[in-house]
Structures are given as C-alpha cells and as structure tokens.
Task: structure prediction
Amino acid sequence: MVGTKNNRRSQMTERLIQDSLINLLQHQSLDEITVTAVCKAADINRGTFYAHYEDVKDCMQKMEQDATEELLAVIDKHLNPDSLQAILTGIFEVVKKRHAVTSFILTTDQDFLMSFIATTKREILAHNQAEITGIGNREKEYMFEYYLNGIVGVVRYWLKTGLHESPEELASFINDWWYRGKPVKNLVEH
Result:
C-alpha cells in the first residue's frame, strides 16, 4: 500500500534514520545532534526525516517506545511462575536484536531505564511471576528491585563485552542463580 506509514519502504527509512541516530550517539549527546546531522548520516533529505519524526528526540522516544513494547510483550507472553528463563530469553533476544538502542538506554538514558525497570517490576508482580512464601509484599518489591537491577548490570556487561553468549545461555545463567541463590532458597525452606 503506497503512501501508508507502515509500508516496507517507510519502515526501512525509519530504520535507516534510527540507525544513523544511534551511530551519532556514539560520539555526541542526544541534545547535540541535529536533524541535519541525522539526515546527512542517513543520506536523506530533511523532508524525509520530518515525514517520520518531529525532531531528534521524537525519533529517540519512538525507538525507546518500540523497545519497551517488545520487552513488555515478552513478559505478558509468559505468565506462569515457571517461566523466568523463558521471559529472560525473550528479553535478551530483544536486547540483542536492538542492541544499539538498548545499549544507549542502559548506559545513557537513566530516566527511561528507571521507568522501564519500574514498569517491568509492576508487570511481574501483577502477574505473580514468582510465588514466594514467607515474604511480605514490601520485601518482595525490594527483592525484585534487587534482581532487576542485577539483571540490568548483567545485560550491560553482556553488551559491553560483545554479546558473546546467546540469549538462551545468559537466561540460563540468571535462572540458575535465581533458583540456586541463597535469598530464594532460604525463603522456600521456611
């Protein structure tokens, strides 16, 4: 369908613009990057850019929104308590697929990262992803905060060291730590 916003050419142009912005972010802050610089890097004209985005920040927000929607869809897909490894594998697949955007979010955009962690924690707690007995709701929230921030640290390291492990392998590590870890082990034994 020619002229529709979601046709293949439009999607390819958006991806080109987004990739160009991510490349520019390797050397400049978001506030320093102009539409002109993105257009030059993408080899497009300003009209093409403005057909897709209002400005550079709008482009970045759209990338973050798309990544968030993908990540939350993974969480929503796995609602049973035994699916930690499946959730993590899905999340890590998205991180790997969108590694440039997720790397920016995890290293630079702290406000967005904190908002995403809070949303993720809410989603997991709302769906009772981990049935843990002998622990109050407030302590459970702290525990999830601890684990989510730990997972973010692991993902940062994974991105920094070149994504050598597969998403499945990394998810298996964390799944093993979770189920063999002292905090959960002690809680289950009470």
About this structure: The chain has ten helices and no strands. The CA atoms of residues 61 and 112 lie 9 Å apart. The radius of gyration is 19 Å. The longest helix spans residues 137-160.
